[in-house]
Amino acid sequence: MKSFCQLVVASLLTATALGAAAECNPTLRNTFDASAVTAESNGVLVDSKTGLMWMRCALGYQWQSGNCVRDESQTAEFTWPDALKAAAEAKAFAGYQDWRLPNRKELASIVEAACHDPAINLTLFPATEAKGYWSSSPNNFAEVLAWGINFTNGDHISTSRTNLFGVRLVREVKP
Question: What element of type H or E holds 116?
Answer without folding.
Answer: strand 115-116
